[in-house]
């Protein structure tokens, strides 16, 4: 059918047939393995017990980096379809799959942390996308940096978490869910706008 070949070219150029499935499988395995387990890691304040599930979203963030980084600008600008819209659709798909996987594992295995994993992926991807117009590929370090900041600096003396950490919050935490949604949507729109502007300046 007309139009199928450009879409398949785009999908393969974004490693949608290789890196994305591997990232989703890695995320799934991490969520199924970590569940509600904790590890003792060095922290500056409070308890040293850290939820391993905090690290589970990182493969999905890596997949989004691959989508954003793959392909060449010249080819994208010459393409007949709007590559930035297709990229955004793929990023949304990766994130939604992560949310669904987390809730399915939560429903089957009863892990509250699993239900938060997809939300946390959306939040971390949103943070990365917000910085992408300025930092480009360097923003790929932000999700891991946020997780490590939560681990090292996020505890309170009473053993809880600081207000800014968000990631350790339970799946029913309204503010955490709202924060993830707002950051993800805002980051996606800002990145798409930036790439549209670059496309228009390049034509």
For this entry, give a set of tags.
mainly alpha, globular, 203 residues
Description:
- By secondary structure, the protein is mainly alpha-helical.
- The chain has one domain (4-202).
- The protein is built from eight helices and two strands; from the N terminus they run ααββαααααα.
- It has helices at 4-13, 19-34, 58-69, 73-78, 83-109, 112-135, 142-153, 174-202; strands at residues 38-40, 49-51.
- The chain has a two-stranded antiparallel sheet.
- The longest helix has 29 residues, at 174-202.
- The model has no long low-confidence stretch (mean pLDDT 86).
Summarize the structure.
This protein is an all-alpha fold. The protein is 67% helix and 3% strand. The chain is globular and about 55 Å long.
Overall 3D geometry?
A: globular
Structure summary, number of beta strands? 2
Distance between the termini: 28 Å
Helix content percent band: 55-70%
Outline the low-pLDDT stretches. none
| Number of spatially distinct domains | 1
Q: How does the helix and strand content classify structurally?
A: mainly alpha
Characterize the biggest β-sheet. Answer: 2 strands, antiparallel
Look at the structure and give the mean pLDDT: 86
Gyration radius (Cα, Å) is 18 Å
Question: Beta-strand percentage?
Answer: under 5%
Strand order of the largest sheet: 1-2
What's the SSE pattern? HHEEHHHHHH
- Number of distinct helices: 8
């Amino acid at each position: 059918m007309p139009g199928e070949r450009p879409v398949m070219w785009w999908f393969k150029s974004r490693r949608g047939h290789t890196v994305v499935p591997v990232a989703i499988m890695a995320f799934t395995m991490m969520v199924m393995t970590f569940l509600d387990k904790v590890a003792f890691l060095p922290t500056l304040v409070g308890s040293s017990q850290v939820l391993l599930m905090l690290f589970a979203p990182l493969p999905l963030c890596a997949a989004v980096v691959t989508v954003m980084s793959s392909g060449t600008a010249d080819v994208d600008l010459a393409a007949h379809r709007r590559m930035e819209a297709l990229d955004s659709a793929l990023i949304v798909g990766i994130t939604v799959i992560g949310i669904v996987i987390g809730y399915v594992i939560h429903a089957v295995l009863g892990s509250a942390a699993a239900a938060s994993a997809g939300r946390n992926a959306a939040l971390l991807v949103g943070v990365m996308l917000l910085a992408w117009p300025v930092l480009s590929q360097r923003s790929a370090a932000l999700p891991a940096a946020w997780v490590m900041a939560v681990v090292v600096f996020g505890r309170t003396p009473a053993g809880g978490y600081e207000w800014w950490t968000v990631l350790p919050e339970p799946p029913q935490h309204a503010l955490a869910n709202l924060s993830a949604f707002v950051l993800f949507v805002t980051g996606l729109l800002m990145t798409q706008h930036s790439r549209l502007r670059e496309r228009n300046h390049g034509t």
